[in-house]
Design a protein that fits this description.
By secondary structure, this protein is of the alpha+beta class. It contains 3 helices and 8 strands; from the N terminus they run αβαββαβββββ. Strand 6 and strand 7 form a beta hairpin. It starts with a helix and ends in a 15-residue tail after the last strand.
Length: 144
């Protein structure tokens, strides 16, 4: 069984560049103003500076100076998946390190060789667990 992509990969946009696509998504859904999104720096570390906002708030930020200037650092805006996947009742995140080498010619000690594409997955990664058990009583309250 293969899960559909939308079940495991959250809908996301790079703002402000993809603001119009976000607005189209918003217009296509019933009650989409209540959808919650995570805004984060695209090259950030940890969760520093992340913002949780509704679709209406995100579009408002795009129109204001918070994200409006394309020369400033863009933000990744990902829909918060509900209900979240839990492990032992806790939210979690995984960081897996992957290196991809595309198909092409490489210079080796034996001379120039054409190799197929290769993917290497590190044996080390990172798992982060929430310190508290997940409680779904505030599913529509983005302040909790």
């Amino acid at each position: 069984y293969v899960l559909p992509r939308e079940k495991i990969w959250p809908l996301g946009y790079v703002l402000p560049r993809e603001k119009d696509a976000l607005a189209r998504e918003w217009a296509s859904k019933v009650d989409s103003g209540k959808l919650t999104w995570m805004l984060k720096d695209r090259a950030g570390y940890g969760s520093h500076g992340n913002i949780i906002a509704t679709t209406t708030e995100v579009l408002s930020m795009c129109d204001s100076s918070k994200i409006a200037n394309e020369r400033e650092e863009s933000k990744l805006c990902q829909q918060i998946v509900h209900p979240p996947m839990l492990l032992n009742g806790r939210k979690f995140s995984l960081r897996v390190y992957v290196i991809y080498f595309p198909e092409g010619a490489v210079l080796t000690p034996k001379g120039k060789q054409t190799l197929g594409s290769e993917v290497y997955v590190s044996t080390e990664g990172l798992v982060k667990f929430a310190s508290a058990l997940y409680i779904d009583e505030a599913s529509n309250d983005i302040d909790n």
